[in-house]
Every structure is written in structure tokens, then in C-alpha cells.
């Protein structure tokens, strides 16, 4: 059975790039336009990993991770932040919210897949 990964990013093109790479690697993908959209799509189904941008309208990635970690079904779901933000303070804020990894855009799909394979829940 394929593992499910959620991509949360306000950029359609970025979601497509990530989605294609993940689907080629055998994952199922759910997409969210921003934190609010992503939360509305998490209806208790099993999600093995979430990849989220930081800067998004409506609800940014760090607020999304905080809200996610309040939900019992997703408390332990690993989150990779995929973002243009590279400042240490932002990384620490992301980690404090519950993010497991931080990748800076632009990224190589194989780099991202390596991180995904390490973090995806069994």
C-alpha cells in the first residue's frame, strides 16, 4: 500500500514539481494551497509525512504545523518545511512548532526524496 504525503504550498508549480517526484517514487499525494486548506483536507485519514512551505496566505506554514500538532491523529506526523527562508531564527521557530526537517528552495528532487525516505512513518 502506498504511503500518503501531503504537500502544502501556495505555488501551483512547486506543488506540481514535488507531486511528480513523489508519485514517481510511489507515494500518494494530497495537495493543500495553504495551511487552512491543508487542515480542511486532513479528515482523519493516515498521512505519513507533510511537506509544507512557510510563507503562505491565510495560514503560514509554522502556524499550520502548530495547529497540526494539536490534532491527536497528526501529533506524530513528520513535517518537512520546504521554503525560501534560510534564517536560523525561522528554522528554530519551525522546529519549536514541530517540524522535523528544513529544506531551502530551490531544491533538488532527489535531495527531497532522500529526506522523505528518512522521515516517512512506517
Automatic annotation (TrEMBL):
Response regulatory domain span: 4-120
Q: What protein does this entry describe?
A: Response regulator
Asked if the keyword Lipid metabolism belongs to this entry, the reply reads no
> Where are the 4-aspartylphosphate residues found in this chain?
53
Q: Which CDD domains match?
A: REC_CheY4-like
Instruction: Extract the InterPro entries matched here.
Output: Bact_response_regulator, CheY-like_superfamily, Sig_transdc_resp-reg_receiver
Q: Name one Pfam family in it.
A: Response_reg
Query: What are the alphabetically sorted keywords of the record?
Result: Phosphoprotein
Taxonomic lineage of this organism? Bacteria, Pseudomonadati, Pseudomonadota, Betaproteobacteria, Burkholderiales
- For whether the record's keyword set contains Transmembrane, the answer is no
Q: Which SMART domains match?
A: REC
- What species does this protein belong to? Noviherbaspirillum sedimenti
